[in-house]
Amino acid sequence: MNPMNFRSLEDFWAFYVSQHSKRATRHWHFVGTFLSIFFLMFSIFFSWWFLFFVPLSGYGCAWYSHFFVEKNVPATFGHPFWSFLCDYKMFGLMLTGKMDREIKRLGKRPVLQGF
Asked: What is the top-level taxon of the source organism (predicted)?
């Protein structure tokens, strides 16, 4: 499948999971998503100034993991909206302890590069 031609979010999800094959990559994403939620709440309750840290923490941790841990290109560059949705799906699955089961469900898939 050409990564440019995803027909559904589920198709993209399989690609997304393949791009997060290393546990450390997923952990960096979890930390970044958690921090972005934290800073969003902090900005709502204390000061709008903290909004600056929402994308900085979320994307900073995620992109670090792709460049230095997974050694691939972040899917955000080619599919920003679907990547955003899948990041929160992965966060939820990790939070509930179901991400490893999801990885097994999807099985070994080819790692696609590009957009």
From this structure: Eukaryota
